Amino acid sequence: MTMQLWTHCRIASLAAHVAQPYGLIDDAALVTEGSTIAWVGLRQQLPQALERQCTVRHDASGALVTPGLIDCHTHLVYGGDRAQEFEMRLTGASYEDIARAGGGIASTVRATRAASRAELERSSARRLTQLIGEGVTTIEIKSGYGLALEHERKCLTVARGLARTHPVDVCTTFLGAHAVPPEFAGRTDDYVDAVLRMLPALQAEGLVDAVDGFCECIAFNVPQMERIFVAAKALGLPVKLHAEQLSDSGGAQLASRYQALSCDHLEWLSDEGAQAMAAAGTVAVLLPGAFYFLRETRLPPIGLLRRLGVPMAISTDCNPGSSPCTSLLLMLNMACTLFRLTPEEALAGVTRNAAAALGLADRGVLAAGQRADFVLWDVQHPAQLCYALGSNPRIQTVFKGQVA
Ligand code: DI6
Ligand code: FE
What we know:
The protein is of the alpha/beta class. The protein is built from 16 helices and 15 strands. The chain has an eight-stranded parallel β-sheet. Strand 9 (240-243), helix 9 and strand 10 (262-265) form a beta-alpha-beta unit. 3-[(4S)-2,5-dioxoimidazolidin-4-yl]propanoic acid binds next to helix 4.
């Protein structure tokens, strides 16, 4: 297998065993063997025997190297957009007015159902390309705008297909329990039955890596979500939850009882919910784009999560309604400015902790044995990635050991 060597770089490894902030290694060297990292450390400690085996050598010209970025919570595949709804709200229409006029999630469900697979591929690829252009090498993509078997299948198939046409890994999540579709209006329990029929069918087709839901008074309650989690666990699928976004519904406690990979949003998370997450090892996925776009004022309890040692991840939540965002770098800035995370916490949130939120142990830090997914940046210090909003200092991405 080809061995490649990168030198003349500063590495923010994010690895816990490197004592410096960000796991920084100055004047570093990195060796890959095929799609895996074989060695990372100080240039002068690189064993000569290993150096001799490297047939391809790269001069990183002083670049900063970080792990490939991981966007661990997106609704990337959907039809249409909601720009007109955005415009209506800015000219005085209330959310209820818009919903009565057929807007909101329902309008995206209509547009997604009407869209062909090719149309969804095209619009999703455009968004994905923007994220990849900022150094994203792994992305989670949820269904949840089809809300019927054929349309959920169409969206998950598009999500899977994107990984075949782009230098990125895709983790798919079945979010059938995102909203109650119009044909089930007023019959939420019947729709949960339908979700329970969709799940094994989609899993059998290899389209589902995890199961999510929207636990909220306007969506699915705790007993309804629990039925879905029981079914997911019976199929051996990990679960996660949109929890405590608009109110405290006790979703975090429920999710923790099912060893959820993550609870996401969490503006209304209670002490009990945070403690349950800490005990279960559940990651807190914070979504500053949705907080910003919905002009929320209640912050997720960052101090509490920190005190309890709950790992925090950061993601775009890319979706047409609450976070039409395709910049994970902007989310780094917003995590710091809006949520007061330190730049080091924010960067860990799109690398190490985002990998944990997806249950992936083979990426998110730069260390021997990990996947060779990394990004070269034209900055001196990792804090610059969080600080300079609207800039994209990416030089190059290496995906599975290949310059992408
Ligand atoms: N929470 C959100 O913020 C999005 N979904 C969810 O469960 C909103 C999705 C939309 O408005 O289209
Ligand atoms: Fe979401």
